[in-house]
Specification:
Rossmann fold; alpha/beta; six-stranded parallel beta sheet; pyruvate-formate lyase- activating enzyme; 513 residues; 19 helices
Length: 513
């Protein structure tokens, strides 16, 4: 074994998609290459020992915002133990500002950009009799020709297909220039050969794949391609599938709508990044979005289709106040997407968002994931409060565990018809006062918190909310009764559980059905 490709995934069920591309395009070195995936939860020395057990001459690490701290420790210990092993880094986290990063100083080589073909070329040089290239610590990879690349889908194992997220892509790049996103630095969108891509999907289906996560930034940009992919799945009984796509909010022509409506419930998930409804902020960060059209598209998707909508808003953008964010949040809640991901602005390395630092007094954490700490319009204390808001919104609203109960928090009390943002902000503040944390909260503890908040603070009648909470708790097949509800319900056994489905749908999406 000469070459090892390694990365630390955030969780086991994630797959190292980028490293599979490198492995697929190793050419004559493919048989001498092995892929090893770890998680960021594993002990550093355990990872180092595993790597050394393969006795590699070259180790290529995929480095991302979620694993850079842990990978830095792995590389440091690996080089202390075996300085002769050549360490090559790649990935978005080390494609910019390389002279400022500890991990880059530890490595022998860094390949910036899309390294699908460049990594194999470097390995051939390192293993040749002529030795490595001289004086080139950072290698800027040329943009690969997608027509010349080998697709990596045959490298998904049977275990991957059965237990992990299967990532696929029909295109690369993004035509937009949103300053908070690394895609702002991409060259224009490029398409993989469509026929070859569809053949790869067919092969994955035949091997048993049922969940597909498309990583294309703009799935609905190229109408011909997006129609062909949707038609492909419609022709193969999509009822047992789960398909995730990322869509541009304000582009949903009739040619796509007529296909989308044909998919059964629980099959399609669309990730739609609204990010901000404030047009002045959108202009400030170079984000072009027709909000009225986006709003109409979301309303149509929610009312006329069975698509699961995962939408995104960002806290802390330059020029965005709490009041502005709250207005956008309430506007999005009114459209009733199943999920609203409240994200905290991050200063990704290389992104042009830094041009606003002085004007808007943007202060970011220097540690991954480089989240905003305060701005001219939102102080640190308020941003901490909004972080807690975001975490509890995910646990309560996005999880699907409180579908019937959530309206009681947002609408019923104490101000019917008021602001959903203000209502949930009151709840998240109260919940933090009771617990002192937003992590490690079991579902039964969340049920207790919601029950106490509604009955004690908002004066909701126990007999009104207890059966609602129990129905929510039993969504997904649970049959027990939380302690806080046992004495409040005369006949809890009369509230039946909703059995979990056995299809490809993830549990969270199933609870929203």
């Amino acid at each position: 074994m000469s070459i090892l490709l390694a990365t630390l995934n955030a969780r086991y069920h994630h797959c190292a998609f980028g490293l599979r591309y490198l492995w697929a395009n190793m050419g004559d070195l493919r048989s001498a290459t092995r892929l090893c995936e770890f998680t960021i939860q594993q002990p550093t020395l355990e990872i180092v020992a595993d790597i050394l057990s393969h006795e590699p001459r070259i180790v290529g690490f995929g480095v991302y915002i979620w694993n850079v701290a842990e990978t830095t420790r792995v590389v440091a210990d690996l080089k202390r133990l075996r300085p002769d092993i050549v360490v090559v880094l790649g990935g978005p986290e080390v494609s910019y500002e390389t002279d400022e990063q500890e991990i880059c100083g530890l490595a022998d080589y860094i390949i910036t950009g899309e390294a699908d073909l460049a990594f194999a070329e470097l390995c051939r040089e390192l293993l040749s009799s002529d030795g490595p290239r001289n004086g080139q610590h950072v290698i800027a990879a040329p943009v690969p020709d997608l027509n010349a690349m080998r697709m990596p889908y045959d490298l998904y194992t049977e275990d991957d297909l059965a237990h992990r997220v299967i990532y696929v892509e029909a295109s690369r790049g993004c035509p937009f220039t949103c300053e908070f996103c690394l895609s702002a630095l991409d060259i224009p969108v490029r398409q993989f050969p469509l026929d070859q891509f569809l053949d790869a999907l067919e092969s994955l289906l035949e091997r048993g794949a049922r969940q597909f996560k498309f990583v294309d930034r703009t799935f609905n940009l190229n109408l011909k391609t997006s129609r062909a992919i949707l038609e492909f799945f419609l022709a193969r009984d999509p009822a047992g599938l789960f398909l995730h796509f990322e869509l541009i909010p304000d582009r949903l022509p009739e040619a796509l709508r007529e296909l989308i409506v044909r998919f059964p419930a629980g099959t399609l998930q669309f990730e739609i990044g609204i990010q901000t409804f404030n047009e002045t902020v959108g202009d400030l960060i170079s984000r072009k979005q027709h909000n009225a059209v986006a709003e109409e598209n979301l309303r149509w998707l929610r009312e006329q289709t069975a698509v699961h909508l995962h939408t995104d808003l960002i806290v802390g953008l330059p020029g965005e106040s709490v009041e502005s964010f709250a207005a956008g949040f309430d506007r999005l809640v009114a459209l009733q997407p199943q999920e609203i991901q409240v994200g905290i602005l991050k200063r990704l390395r290389g992104t042009p968002i830094i041009r606003h630092d002085a004007t808007w007094q943007m202060v970011y954490s220097p540690h991954p994931p480089y989240e905003i700490l305060q701005t001219m319009l939102v102080d640190f204390s308020t941003l901490q409060e909004l972080r807690r808001f975001a975490k509890l919104w995910d646990l309560i609203a996005n999880s699907g565990n409180f579908i019937e109960t959530l309206p009681w928090i947002l609408e019923r009390q104490p101000e019917p018809g008021g602001s959903p943002f203000a209502a949930f902000r009151r709840f998240s503040g109260w919940a933090f006062e009771q617990t002192g944390r937003t992590h490690s909260l079991a579902l039964t503890r969340l049920v207790e918190l919601v029950f106490d908040y509604l009955t004690q603070r908002n004066r909701v009648a126990v007999e009104a909310i207890a059966p609602v909470l129990l129905r929510d708790y039993r969504r997904g097949g649970r049959s027990d009764t939380p302690v806080c509800l046992r004495a409040k319900l005369a006949k809890p056994e009369q509230i039946s559980s909703v059995p979990s489905e056995t299809s490809a749908k993830p549990a969270r999406q199933s609870r929203h059905l």
